[in-house]
């Protein structure tokens, strides 16, 4: 009989359910079919006027009936759909009764322009509007629900009620690494013996005009507006920025022992996780890539494996000039000569950069890659960048056995988390 | 779990309306006049403004300071004080392995830009296009960095070199409790040796008052103690960070404990159910207290909002222990409130004394015994119940 503990004597943590939503669609089946077909979910923005904007494309989720409400409303709905899929697949607990804690990565949340405008109008100020006018209007008490809606904790709180998770949910952000952090917190809690199961969710439905403009002002976004589907070009010579996007990913984590005891189907193992923060700069990564090297090595050490044991890398691959170069530098140090021949791909070429949700979505796709023995391509790879020679599985999916995946996530603000996933317990 | 290790607090960084550092706070707490409050600048609200701080002392590069908004400066400053207090400042080797969990909000709007847009937007033929134009021309690009929750942690990494790991929790009061809890759990379980945990809050912001105002929970002037008659949240600017460390790691580098963090509990009562908060806080206090009452006090981090604080008061009254309100002294700093209260609890326990009662806060009674244990309680203004236990290390 297989052991329930890993090489380090810790409980083995497995995934028994996974769910996702992206601009390509809702659910694993729909997303997977489109991902292996090399389809892009990037399109012209219709949610708000694009007149005068430098970037007019995004991977927004527009197909839900209620898309276009506030960022926390949409983020909560995306998270809820992904979590419902994951829990249904896992068959864990009972309806509204999940036997473990919730770790939920959420996007930035604040009162938005529609609410500010209503308050400003209701204040009936005679002269220029100030926050004192907004405060006066708010105290009238006609918009109490906005208080809860724009608290950072409200998304996770509502999800905790809906799915019946245990205790106080943790809402978190490590920017673009958030999804991996939500998974990491679950892995750690199970390894410590704090719980037998955990629900990790990462969600982002925060593409508003202001969010887009903020990233645009930092020159982080692609301006390849003409052909939206061809704009995200990770690792290509003509990449020019990331495509802001929305989505959610959710995973049901369990100890192997707990999963086996209830006869659950195991869809993957979370073998190792590593992190390391960068102290170089607020928006730029350390040019020597030391933090991302340290982060990848920490994940390998945590799993008790070596770089030679990795079959495929689910890259961070944002399509910004700097990230992709830095990620190459980091991977070259960790994998040595082998880096040119390990297949790696960036899901962001198709779904854009779902920011807070990205790492969780990519973890779900990594599990699908292992299970199906098929690697989703990096699309829009027409002009290779000779400075970063990689096997990016260009443009067409590839059939090959994949046993162990490294999934990288590097956050804006210097927070890096790397995850190792396998198909079956060692 | 039985094989858990002790967790020491070996460094504390604290800034608030009472000043900076542990000794300044101890001095201020010994003379309980009216707390430092501002009842006019943000009228009708009352809040506890940050004491005058020379940020250069912990954030020497002006360029770094310019990239932060006040809440991040407060936090980065407090984190520096904590590292100084623990004797870790500049110790690259240890800082590179120090784990960090930060409790943060975010935001900080450019209120001038917002006001100008709101003044004109309804007169425009196409308000949304006008909004985009204005934001594109008038938002400072770097303001975004000051808005993101995880950038307080990012700034601490950049300014102080803490890079072992970095996680940011949001979710108002409970995020502060959970930041400490996760840092504590990892050390107790032997998967981390040293951690910097804490948070920061800038109360001097109309954009944050707006969030409270929507539910009419921000305290209006005049200031009043929160336990005897909770009428609203008296927000306060503050930052607090704790260095948590395993005894082995601390002893190996010759560091002394200020106190021991013996437990952190984070829960979520069903707020709609009558009596739910009280029952939960009762149980959490019982767990923290164990069989020992001697030398034990409760430090309340109550938010001041009527219902949750009334429930907290009911529970702590029943515990039969001396009580002090942290919030009366420094205000309520939302995400940072549990770390602030823990800093004051560790300070009091290390001094072996409880600070003097505050006039008008009838639950506070004189206590002249030796203080060896402090239970910190905090019921969030909307969600989240937290309790922690700090004990003297002999």
Automatic annotation (TrEMBL), chain A:
Pathway annotation from the record: Lipid metabolism; fatty acid biosynthesis
Signal sequence interval, chain numbering: none
Record-linked InterPro entries: Beta-ketoacyl_synthase, Ketoacyl_synth_AS, Ketoacyl_synth_C, Ketoacyl_synth_N, PKS_Beta-ketoAc_synthase_dom, Thiolase-like
Enzyme class at the top of the EC tree: transferase
Lipid metabolism is among the record's keywords: no
Keyword entries, A-Z: Acyltransferase, Transferase
All copies of domain Ketosynthase family 3 (KS3), residue ranges: 10-423
EC nos: 2.3.1.179
SUPFAM superfamilies tied to this protein: Thiolase-like
A Pfam family matched in the record: ketoacyl-synt
UniProt cross-references to PANTHER family, sorted A to Z: 3-OXOACYL-[ACYL-CARRIER-PROTEIN] SYNTHASE, MITOCHONDRIAL (PTHR11712:SF336), POLYKETIDE SYNTHASE-RELATED (PTHR11712)
Homology family: Belongs to the thiolase-like superfamily. Beta-ketoacyl-ACP synthases family.
Name of the protein in its database record: 3-oxoacyl-[acyl-carrier-protein] synthase II
TrEMBL record, chain B:
InterPro entries, alphabetized: Beta-ketoacyl_synthase, Ketoacyl_synth_N, Thiolase-like
EC number(s) reported in the record: 2.3.1.179
Source organism, top-level taxon: Bacteria
TM annotation in the entry: none
PANTHER family in UniProt: 3-OXOACYL-[ACYL-CARRIER-PROTEIN] SYNTHASE, MITOCHONDRIAL, POLYKETIDE SYNTHASE-RELATED
Protein name listed in UniProt: 3-oxoacyl-[acyl-carrier-protein] synthase II
Molecular function in Gene Ontology: 3-oxoacyl-[acyl-carrier-protein] synthase activity
NCBIfam families to which the protein is assigned, alphabetical: PRK06519.1
Domain Beta-ketoacyl synthase-like N-terminal: 5-246
Species name: Ancylobacter amanitiformis
Keywords: Acyltransferase, Transferase
């Amino acid at each position: 009989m297989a052991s329930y503990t890993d090489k380090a004597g810790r409980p083995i943590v497995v995934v028994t359910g996974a769910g996702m939503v992206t601009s390509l669609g809702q659910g694993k089946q729909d997303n997977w079919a489109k991902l292996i077909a090399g389809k892009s979910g990037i399109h012209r923005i219709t949610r708000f006027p694009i007149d005068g904007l430098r970037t007019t494309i995004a991977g927004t989720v527009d197909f839900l009936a209620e898309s276009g409400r506030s960022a926390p409303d949409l983020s909560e709905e995306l998270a809820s759909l992904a979590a419902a899929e994951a829990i249904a697949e896992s068959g864990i607990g009972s309806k509204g009764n999940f036997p473990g804690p919730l770790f939920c990565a959420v996007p930035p949340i604040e009162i938005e322009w529609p609410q500010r405008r209503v308050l400003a109008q209701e204040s009936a100020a005679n002269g220029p509007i100030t926050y004192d006018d907004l405060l006066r209007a708010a105290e009238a008490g006609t918009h109490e629900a906005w208080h809860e809606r724009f608290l950072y904790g409200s998304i996770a709180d509502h999800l905790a009620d809906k799915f019946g998770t245990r205790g106080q949910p943790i809402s978190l952000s490590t920017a673009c690494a958030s999804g991996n952090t939500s998974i990491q917190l679950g892995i750690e809690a199970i390894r410590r013996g704090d719980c037998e199961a955990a629900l990790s969710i990462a969600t982002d439905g925060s593409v508003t005009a202001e969010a887009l403009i903020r990233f645009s002002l930092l020159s982080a976004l692609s301006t390849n507006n003409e052909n939206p589907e061809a704009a995200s070009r990770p690792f290509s010579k003509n990449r020019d920025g990331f495509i802001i996007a929305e989505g959610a990913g959710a995973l049901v984590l369990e100890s192997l022992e707990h999963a086996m005891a209830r006869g659950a189907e195991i869809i993957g193992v979370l073998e190792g996780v590593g992190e390391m923060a960068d102290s170089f700069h607020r928006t730029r990564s350390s040019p020597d890539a030391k933090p991302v090297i340290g982060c990848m090595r920490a994940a390998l050490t945590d799993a008790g494996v070596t770089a030679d044991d990795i079959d495929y890398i689910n890259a961070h691959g944002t399509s910004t000039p700097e990230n992709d170069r830095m990620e190459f530098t980091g991977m070259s140090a960790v994998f040595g000569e082998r880096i040119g021949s390990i297949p790696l791909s960036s899901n962001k070429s198709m779904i854009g950069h779902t920011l807070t949700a990205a790492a969780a979505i990519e973890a779900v796709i990594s599990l699908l890659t292992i299970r199906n023995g098929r690697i989703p391509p990096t699309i829009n790879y027409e002009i290779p960048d000779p400075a970063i020679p990689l096997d990016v599985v260009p443009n067409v999916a590839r059939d090959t056995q994949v046993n162990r995946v490294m999934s990288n996530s590097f956050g804006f603000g210097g927070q890096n988390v790397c995850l190792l996933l396998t198909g079956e317990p060692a | 779990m039985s094989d858990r290790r002790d967790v020491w607090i070996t460094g504390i960084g604290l800034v608030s309306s009472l000043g900076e550092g542990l000794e300044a706070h101890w001095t201020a707490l010994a003379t309980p006049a009216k707390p430092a409050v501002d009842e006019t600048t943000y009228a009708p609200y009352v809040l506890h403004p940050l004491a005058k701080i020379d940020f250069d002392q912990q954030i020497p590069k002006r360029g770094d300071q310019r990239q932060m908004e006040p809440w991040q400066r407060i936090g980065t400053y407090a984190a520096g004080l904590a590292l100084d207090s623990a004797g870790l400042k500049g110790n690259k080797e240890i800082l590179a392995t120090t784990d960090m969990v930060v409790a943060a909000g975010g935001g900080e709007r450019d209120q001038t830009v917002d006001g100008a847009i709101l003044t004109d937007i309804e007169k425009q033929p196409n308000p949304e296009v006008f909004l985009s134009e204005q934001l594109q021309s008038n938002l400072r690009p770097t303001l975004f960095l000051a808005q993101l929750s995880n950038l307080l942690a990012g700034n601490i990494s950049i300014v102080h070199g803490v890079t072992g790991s970095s996680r940011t929790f949001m979710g108002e009061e409970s995020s502060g409790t959970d930041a400490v809890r996760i840092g504590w759990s990892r050390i107790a379980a032997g998967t981390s040796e040293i951690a910097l945990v804490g948070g920061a809050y800038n109360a001097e912001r109309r954009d944050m008052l707006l969030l409270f105002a929507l539910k009419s929970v921000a305290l209006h002037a005049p200031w009043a103690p929160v336990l005897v008659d909770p009428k609203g949240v008296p927000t306060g600017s503050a930052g607090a960070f704790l260095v948590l460390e395993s005894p082995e790691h601390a002893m190996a580098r010759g560091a002394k404990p200020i106190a021991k963090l013996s437990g952190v509990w984070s829960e979520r009562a069903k707020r709609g159910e009558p009596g739910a908060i009280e029952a939960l806080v009762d149980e959490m206090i019982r767990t923290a207290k164990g069989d020992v009452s001697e030398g034990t006090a409760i430090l309340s981090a109550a938010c001041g909002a009527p219902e949750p604080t009334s429930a907290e008061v009911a529970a702590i009254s029943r515990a039969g222990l001396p009580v002090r309100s942290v919030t009366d002294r420094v205000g309520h700093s939302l995400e940072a409130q549990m770390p602030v209260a823990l800093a004051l609890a560790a300070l009091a326990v290390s001094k072996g004394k409880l600070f003097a009662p505050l006039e008008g806060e009838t639950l506070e009674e004189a206590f002249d015994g030796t203080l060896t244990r402090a239970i910190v309680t905090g019921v969030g203004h909307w969600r989240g119940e937290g309790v922690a236990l700090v004990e003297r290390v002999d």
